[in-house]
Design a protein that fits this description.
The structure is a single chain. This protein is mainly beta. 12% of the residues lie in helices and 35% in strands. It contains six helices and 36 strands. The strands form eleven sheets. Strands 3, 4, 6, 7 and 8 form a five-stranded antiparallel β-sheet that branches. Strands 11, 12, 14, 15 and 16 form a five-stranded antiparallel β-sheet that branches. Strand 26 (349-355) and strand 27 form a beta hairpin. Helix 5 (445-454) crosses helix 6 (458-465). The radius of gyration is 55 Å and the shape is rod-shaped. The protein starts with a helix and ends with a strand.
Length: 550
């Protein structure tokens, strides 16, 4: 009985130890093969940070810290828009081995959130790193630039049209500009709101007469896009000027001018004065044209009516337009008494004009007691009276008077007819009535000198005596202002050989003195000069006559 009891006490501990050994062996097997029936485990790794994110790409990778006891056959990253990406989704394959690696992720959609993690594969299976999320960049906006309009000295209008916002909100749009050819938002810009679509931009603060480059811009979370570049040039400034005081006022003329103190940054293409009987004269009324460029200028105003109030101001024109100085008013002098005269011999009424201390006929004499054919006359015309009408070749007085040349230019007289047989005179006054009506006389050389000296000398007097324009005078009718009202006309002449010449080019007038027995003095004016010239010629030529009141 005692031996049986000892046997039972030893067997129980031994049984317990066997159970423990069997359990330990089983646990060791599970740790070694991870349930796969071998001695390897899955890889252990981490996911590296995601960098270089663009609209369609990014960079990441992993670091494999344990290959699990078996070779790594492939590693990379996998990604998806789902929160738990696996290698059954998108993935890279970036090599083998238990190493640190970098992965380039491509083919992404803009403005999209993705989930990504590293993976590594061995014979035991796939190990994964931690999951990271990132959002790709949006697309850049697509837009065009509107035409630049409403350009002034310092402003313009443009804008743009955003046709694609890149899939996200446009946070700012407008136009940017610079004097450089590639403006950006770091230069001058407008800020015209948010969102896509068409917009208008007001560009201000520009410099006059300056070329700018401009383009529309639009900004979203991806960045800033630009439309095409437009160039434009702002207008010049308008000129700044003043009007000079009106002086030297006569019956039909005055002197003024202006001073241009700012040309607006560009060439002054025309300046002068304009005038009217209305209170706000413009260059659409009467005007002078006195040259180009800035600075001070003088203007001669002619063709005025006696005893009339005029309003005048200086003007200057550049590419921006026309500016005016202040308005001046003045009243011309009254006309002299006897401003018309009727010749009692034929009833012809003549305009007259007072110049200095002389009163002249303001028309060529038209007294025509008879008319000669152009061939009539001789080299020695002494004692023979000849009367011609330019262009008329006949002897009928009524027919001659019916011509336009008679109405405009009067009669051409040979020396004998002009002097009416009287002797030469050099005195002032001449005392020679000649062909002139009673109370009037043919001027001497001294009387012509008095006239031209009063007008500033023979070099400029012709311009002040000639009718303006090119209705009767040939172009350019140099210097013609007719500020005296004398209205000298180019009536031409009849030559000794029996021909008419120079109508439109020259006016010729007999005087009382003679140089030699057959060569008297005469005065003439030319379409191409502003002079009054004196020369002598045969007595049988035909010239015009101007009479002076006794």
């Amino acid at each position: 009985m005692i031996m049986r009891k000892k046997t039972n006490n030893l067997i129980f501990p031994l049984l317990l130890m066997g159970v423990f050994l069997i359990f330990a062996s089983s646990c060791q097997k599970d740790d070694d093969d991870n349930g796969n029936g071998n001695n390897t485990g899955i890889p252990v790794l981490s996911t590296t940070a995601i960098t270089d994110i663009t609209q369609t790409t990014a960079k990441s990778g992993g670091n494999i810290t344990s290959d699990g006891g078996a070779p790594i056959t492939v590693h990379g990253v996998c990604w998806s828009t789902n929160e738990n990406p696996t290698i059954d989704d998108n993935k890279t394959e970036d090599g083998t081995g238990a190493v640190s690696f970098t992965s380039s992720v491509t083919g992404l959609e803009p403005n999209t959130t993705y989930y990504l993690r590293a993976y590594a594969t061995n014979s035991a299976g796939n190990g994964y790193g931690s999951i990271m999320s990132f959002t790709t960049q949006a697309r850049f906006p697509v837009l065009s630039t509107r035409e630049v309009t409403d350009i002034t000295e310092n402003s313009a209008t443009s804008g743009g049209n955003i046709t694609d916002d890149g899939g996200v909100l446009i946070t700012a749009h407008g136009v940017c500009w610079s004097t450089n050819e590639n403006p950006t938002i770091d230069d001058n810009k407008t800020e015209d709101g948010t969102g896509a679509g068409s917009f208008t931009s007001s560009v201000t603060g520009l410099e006059p007469n300056t070329t700018y480059y401009l383009r529309a811009y639009a900004t979203n979370s991806a960045g800033t896009s630009y439309g095409s570049i437009m160039s434009f040039t702002t207008q010049a400034r308008f000129p700044v000027l003043s009007t000079r005081e009106v002086t030297d006022i006569t019956e039909n003329s005055a002197t003024s001018g202006g001073n241009i103190t700012d040309d607006g940054g560009v060439l002054i293409t025309a300046h002068g004065v304009c005038w009217s009987t209305n209170e706000n004269p413009t260059i659409d009324d009467n005007k002078t044209e006195d040259g180009t460029g800035a600075g001070s200028f003088t203007s001669s105003v002619t063709g005025l009516e006696p005893n009339t109030t005029y309003y005048l101001r200086a003007y200057a024109t550049n590419s921006a337009g026309t500016s005016y100085g202040s308005i001046m008013s003045f009243t011309t002098q009254e006309g002299s008494s006897g401003s018309t005269f009727t010749d009692p011999r034929d009833g012809k009424v003549y305009q007259t004009v007072v110049i200095g201390n002389q009163e002249w006929m303001a028309e060529n004499l038209a007294y025509l007691p008879s008319v000669n054919m152009v061939a009539d006359g001789s080299e020695n015309a002494a004692g023979s009276y000849y009367y011609y009408v330019y262009g008329y070749d006949g002897t009928n007085v009524a027919d001659a008077k019916a011509t336009d040349n008679y109405a405009t230019y009067g009669v051409l007289y040979n020396w004998t007819a002009a002097m009416d047989g009287e002797a030469s005179s050099t005195t002032n006054p001449s005392g020679i009535q000649g062909v002139c009506p009673a109370g009037w006389h043919l001027p001497s050389e001294a009387e012509w000198d008095e006239l031209t000296n009063y007008l500033g000398g023979t070099g400029v007097a012709g311009g002040k005596l000639k009718e303006t324009g090119t209705t009767h005078w040939n172009t350019p009718n140099t210097g013609a202002t007719n500020e005296t009202g004398f209205t000298a006309l180019p009536g031409g002449l009849r030559l000794s050989n029996g021909t008419f010449i120079n109508i439109g080019s020259n006016g010729y007038w007999w005087g009382a003195p003679e140089l030699y027995a057959t060569y008297p003095w005469f005065q003439y004016m030319d379409y191409n000069y502003s002079n009054v010239l004196r020369i002598n010629l045969d007595k049988d030529v035909g010239f015009s006559v101007r009479c002076v009141r006794d």
